[in-house]
Amino acid sequence: MQKLNNIMYSKDLKKAYPLPGGDVFWALKGIDVEIPESKLTILKGRSGSGKTTLMNMLGALDEATQGQVVLDGQDICSLSEENRTLLRRSTMGFVFQSVALIPMMTARENVEYALRLSGWKGDRAARTERCLELVGLSKRAAHMPAELSGGEQQRVAIARAIAHMPKIVFADEPTGELDTNTALQVVKIFRKLCSEDGVTILMTTHDKGFMDIGDKVYEMEDGEIVGGS
């Protein structure tokens, strides 16, 4: 079996939320995961299983109660909020179930705006066109979000997420609001980005149909890893 190079891992990662009366709810109960570089890793689980909480910890969107999250040798849990913000902006990309495109901007402008935010120093126009080409939307670049289908909007969101060449892209239920056909197209784009452009992607889903598509799969239940491949 081919040995995978891990770009990120977590060790004994825990997240607790306070409850009335002094009790706590453990949303994560000591998670160890490894995210291989340039591969598609899937976190599968029902709503409430902890997969989004885990992604928020890995993506430096929330603070862990205990444990480590290491990205390229750096424990991001030890960073200040300001440095975590800088890390997200420069090193990570995000795709959410709600695409959250800026409605007054075209597809092209939405992607280019992400490059501006990240401080991209290269040719923004050329990189924007490349990203839209990667997701198959070169001919729709001048369209506003309202003129695009749900699947096309999600593809613009993917182009925006990869524009600044992040080390890792986090995709939280990116196919949750799409029909099966369109959802499959989105996941195929993820596979292509991994294999052809070397993008590392971590995706959450509750859809059992995507279990065989990931290079690595973790199944979550009640804040714990209960299976995987």
Provide the CATH superfamily of the domain at 6-101 and 165-228: P-loop containing nucleotide triphosphate hydrolases
Beta-strand percent range: 25-35%
Report the top-level CATH class of the domain at 6-101 and 165-228: Alpha Beta
Corresponding CATH architecture of the domain at 6-101 and 165-228: 3-Layer(aba) Sandwich
Offer a quick outline of the entry.
This protein is an alpha/beta fold and 229 residues long. The protein contains six helices and ten strands, in the order βββαββαβαααβαβββ. It starts with 5 loop residues before the first strand and ends with a strand.
What would your notes on this structure say?
- By secondary structure, the protein is an alpha/beta fold.
- Helices cover 32% and strands 28% of the residues.
- It contains 6 helices and 10 strands.
- The strands form 2 sheets. The chain has a 6-stranded mixed beta sheet with strand order 6-7-8-3-9-10, sandwiched between helices. A 4-stranded antiparallel beta sheet has the order 2-1-4-5, covered by helices on one side.
- A hairpin with a 2-residue loop joins β9 (216-221) and β10.
- The longest helix has 18 residues, at 180-197.
